[in-house]
């Protein structure tokens, strides 16, 4: 099984960026945690992070040709603004899980809207880095059930 984890803007600054919301763990620590978890489960995982909306759209589209079976996406700020990411997820028709490290439902009003959610099979918020591991499990179960 091949999973692509896509992270949006400013997530590369984990460990520095608003630790009261995101904790002190670094982006590199997040990737290592996911990599180790996937290796234990025999899952191939690739990672992509960009601060640019178009680059994220391009990576979602690339999943059609590179053997990706499912996507885990944390669109970050683009969650609340990007119809382009929604359209890309719909276009590729791959199962996707939306993840947010913080509890977005307890934050600012503008964070209450997720444009990508309707293209995802599940959403995980507020579970920190472990939310990504939950997303791996959800995605794997979904893929195995639909094969």
Question: What's a quick, concise take on this entry?
Answer:
The protein has helices at 19-22, 27-41, 53-62, 83-92, 130-146, and strands at residues 2-7, 44-49, 70-74, 96-100, 122-125. With 147 residues, the protein is an alpha/beta fold.
Description of the molecule:
This protein has 147 residues and is of the alpha/beta class. It has one domain (2-146): Rossmann fold, CATH 3.40.50.9100. It contains 5 helices and 5 strands. The chain has a 5-stranded parallel sheet, sandwiched between helices. Strand 3 (70-74), helix 4 (83-92) and strand 4 (96-100) form a beta-alpha-beta unit. Helix 3 (53-62) runs parallel beside helix 4. The longest helix has 17 residues, at 130-146. The protein is globular, with a radius of gyration of 14 Å. The N and C termini lie close together (11 Å).
Which key features would you list for this structure?
single chain; 147 residues; alpha/beta; Rossmann fold; 5-stranded parallel beta sheet; 5 helices; 38% helix; globular
Number of strands: 5
Globally, the shape reads globular
CATH superfamily: Dehydroquinase, class II
Most strands sheet: 5 strands, parallel
Domain module count: 1
The top level CATH class name: Alpha Beta
Give the second-level CATH assignment, the architecture: 3-Layer(aba) Sandwich
Unreliable segments of 5+ consecutive residues: none
Roughly what percent helix? 25-40%
Query: Reading side by side through the largest sheet, how are the strands ordered?
Result: 2-1-3-4-5
State the distance separating the first and last CA atoms: 11 Å
Number of helices in the DSSP assignment: 5
Average pLDDT, to the nearest integer?
Answer: 92
Order of helices and strands: EHHEHEHEEH
